[in-house]
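DM from R.C. (forwarded with permission)

"hey, sorry to bug you on a friday — could you get me a structure for this? deadline for the figure draft is monday and I only need the backbone to look sensible"
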Amino acid sequence: MGMGVPPSQRRGRHRAPMADINVTPLVDVMLVLLIIFMVTAPLLVTGVPVKLPENQAKALETNDKPTIISLTAAGEIFINDAQIEEEDMMDRFARLSETQSGAEAPQIFLRADADLDYGNVMKVMGALNRVGLNRVALVSTSETGDVRRRSE
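My reply, with the result:
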């Protein structure tokens, strides 16, 4: 007699829809994503391997995304992660300053290897100054290994 009728209609009562949401899988996925981001984020910060010098200056606060210029122990020059030749340095820095024309000069983070000759660092800083890029911060590490930025 009631065999072909669904159970919700047998006795005239309607079942309320299930309003509970199982959040356990959501929490599991979010924790896995959090762990992945925590592991990969430090790897994304530096693309060019540079042994930074140590200092005790406090970190520089900045709101905008800086342009990172890296100098390796071998004398190679990188803008962000793109290697440039020393002969092209002035042209690339001039293009960098032109892209920000009308606005405040872009923030430059200069990362130089601790074993690099001081003259090479000054050559790059002089080229930056010549094209009008005056907001240069020198990047170093603290004694505990934290990355520090000291503005010039």
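R.C.: lifesaver. The CA atoms of residues 3 and 90 lie 86 Å apart.
me: no worries. Helices lie at 7-10, 24-45, 89-99, 118-130.
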